[in-house]
Amino acid sequence: MSVERNTREIEGTVVTDFDDRMSYGGYLDLETLLSAQRPLSDPEHHDELLFIVQHQTTELWLKLVLHELAAACRLLRKDQLAPALKCIARVKHIQKTLTEQWSVLATLTPAEYAQFRGVLGNASGFQSAQYRAVEFTLGNKNAAMLRVFASDAAAHALVEQALQAPSLYDEFLRLLARTGYPIPESVLERDVTKAWTYTPELVPVFTEVYRDPQTHWAAYETCEELVDLEDNFQLWRFRHLKTVERIIGQKIGTGGSSGVPFLQRALDLTFFPELYAVRTEL
Fold first, then answer.
1. How high is the mean pLDDT of the chain?
2. Which of 11, 45, 118, 139 is packed most tightly, with the most Cβ within 10 A?
3. Residue ranges for the binding site?
């Protein structure tokens, strides 16, 4: 095949003059986005760019997760379950992308990371305000975490807002109560700034839903969507744990945590314990 035949001609209708038109780069503000990767190692280590891009893209996806979860909560408050489930479905796809992304960072070997780890200082993913806001929105709240963001007003405000707001689960249970399900008053009036804890009184409610899915299809479908969310989150936590273990072993984390043991304990946290407990009752 000749070189000429292996070249695609630009169609005459394709816009090529952007002196006074919106361009792809302009719309996405790529000048700002692509200049935000600033390795600190000197001389610059080849793999530091990977480390930065991995975490920056994670933060972009977390921004979208928060956007979708906030919309889902608003829609549940308005009893608009179907579009809320669409938001949750999108979050599930983002979660899969975030989990798979660990395989890219896992190509970083211990020797490679050791050559630039020192420039991180005390910077750690533990300090991600968006990640913490996602956890809070799903119910794993911890007011003590606000101390981590005391020096960053915007981050502190984001996390505090998530702390003060009802979680996605709270909003779902309130919707169920409004549609006639016997949700206990203690659940509906609980302090939403506290972490959700297992509430056995809810298990009979969900047992009825699961024993007759056709009659309770909307509630049943939502329960399963929430279980998907939790499963995906736990897979993400596990891949995080194994990637960290693969790269730094049992070293202390840059943020001062115990590292792998600290991440291991996160696997014991749960968002929707009653939706798992109900399975024992069926």
1. 96
2. 139
3. 51-55, 113, 117, 240, 254
